[in-house]
Each structure stands twice: as structure tokens, then as C-alpha cells.
Design a protein that fits this description.
The chain is of the alpha+beta class. It has a single domain (31-196), classed as Roll (Nuclear Transport Factor 2, Chain: A). The protein has 5 helices and 8 strands, in the order H-H-H-E-E-H-E-E-E-E-E-E-H. The chain has helices spanning 2-26, 34-53, 59-62, 88-94, 193-196; strands spanning 65-74, 84-86, 97-98, 110-111, 123-134, 137-147, 156-169, 172-181. A 6-stranded mixed beta sheet has the order 2-1-8-7-6-5, with helices on one face. Strands 3-4 form a two-stranded antiparallel sheet. Strand 6 (137-147) and strand 7 form a beta hairpin. The protein starts with a helix and ends in a 28-residue tail after the last helix. Residues 195-223 have low confidence and may be disordered.
Length: 224
């Protein structure tokens, strides 16, 4: 009986080793081709154009995300924002689109007046983009430079950066999530106290809005 017990134990240990090896193999990052890297880079580049220009009434921006994907703002690297903007209509609206008849002129599928949004005047420059393969696709991070801060075309502000999760769909690579990490939001010329209350360029176009009383960044308003 003792011998059988030992054999059984060895068998169990063997099964455990096989399961561990299979698990490690299953978690191995996917191999990205040069085309994959190029397409993910293009995805991030398209983001800047879509959010700055309200292309296709905001839908060009919304279509950069998966059906269940979303955008959030966080003050910490490695931490997703508490509030997520999700869904094609909500994302299009966040990009400046008017897609629910909310335009005072009565127009649908139009764009909001950009001068009424908090990020008005800035252009997104996304740099130092790093892409890392994962078992399910890839993750990425990049810096965000905003040009035209406070409606001054010569002024540049570092507005944190992005942390992304990418997945490959039948329509190509898309954002599963994009988080604008904005640690300096409260002191930002465009979005912080100097910009909103101190005459440093209050209204604007950009990611998020100034933090409310609780200090947490809000979901994007107008242009992200």
C-alpha cells in the first residue's frame, strides 16, 4: 500500500509539473510582427488627429476602441481611472461630436463649438511610444505634449502621458483601454488652477477636466 501511495504521489507531482508547464506556455506573450508594431503606432497617431479635429463627428475617435473599450483619466501611473467613458456614442461625444440631438442649432451628427470646451486650442503630440507584447495582445505607454496651451501657439506643456491596452480584432488593432495619466493636472496651465481661475488660458480642448472638490480627475469633456 505504501508503494502504491508513493506511485500515486509521484503521478500527482508529474501532473502538477505538466500543468505548470502548460500554464507558463499559455501565458507566453504573443509574437508581434513589424506590421503589428506599425499598426499599433498608427492607432496612437490616429488618436491625436481624431481628438483634435472631431473627424467624422467624433466617430473616427470612437472607432479606435473595441466595442467594450473605454477611456479614463488617472493621476497615477499604473492605475486606471475610476470613471470610464465607454460605448461608441459616449466616446464620439467625448471627442466633440454631437450625436444625440443636443446641438442648440438642432443639428445632429455635428461637432460642438470647440471654443466651449476646456481643451480648446491645444494639439496632441504623443511621443516616446513603447509597445510591449502580452498574451492577449499588447500594452503601451507614451508621453503627451500639448502644444498651444492657453491659446498660445508657442506654449508647450507636458500633460503626463498614456497607458494603453491593445487587442487585435477583425478590423485591426484597437484600444481595449486608454488611460490618460495626468499627475500634474491640478497645476496644469490648461486644466489646473492657473488656467481655470488664474487667467492662464481657462477654456480648452484636451484630456479630462480639472479635478472636482474631491481631487479626482473627471471623465473627458469635449476634446480629450
Amino acid at each position: 500500500m505504501a508503494k502504491m501511495t508513493g506511485l500515486a504521489a509521484a503521478f500527482v507531482v508529474g501532473l502538477g509539473a505538466i500543468a505548470t508547464a502548460q500554464s507558463q506556455q499559455a501565458k507566453k506573450p504573443m509574437v508581434l510582427t513589424a506590421t503589428d508594431y506599425a499598426e499599433i503606432t498608427q492607432l496612437s497617431n490616429k488618436y491625436a488627429w481624431a481628438i483634435d479635429s472631431c473627424i467624422d463627428n467624433g466617430y473616427a475617435y470612437a472607432d479606435l476602441y473595441t466595442d467594450d473599450g473605454g477611456f479614463s483619466v488617472s493621476q497615477e501611473w499604473g492605475k486606471q481611472g475610476a470613471r470610464m467613458t465607454k460605448g461608441r456614442e459616449a466616446l464620439a461625444a467625448a471627442a466633440g461630436g454631437v450625436n444625440s440631438g443636443g446641438d442648440p442649432s438642432g443639428k445632429k451628427d455635428a461637432c460642438k463649438d470647440p471654443t466651449t470646451t476646456i481643451g480648446y486650442g491645444i494639439s496632441h503630440i504623443i511621443v516616446n511610444h513603447v509597445i510591449t507584447p502580452t498574451p492577449d495582445g499588447a500594452i503601451g505607454k507614451a508621453y503627451l505634449l500639448a502644444i498651444g496651451v492657453g491659446s498660445d501657439p508657442t506654449k508647450i506643456e507636458r500633460q503626463g502621458g498614456y497607458e494603453d491596452v491593445y487587442v487585435k480584432t477583425k478590423d485591426g488593432w484597437k484600444f481595449k483601454s486608454r488611460t490618460h495619466v495626468f499627475p500634474n493636472q491640478s497645476t496644469s496651465v490648461q486644466f489646473g488652477g492657473r488656467g481655470r481661475r488664474g487667467g492662464g488660458g481657462g477654456a480648452g480642448r484636451g484630456d479630462g477636466a480639472a479635478p472636482p472638490a474631491g481631487g479626482q480627475p473627471t471623465a473627458p469633456q469635449g476634446r480629450q
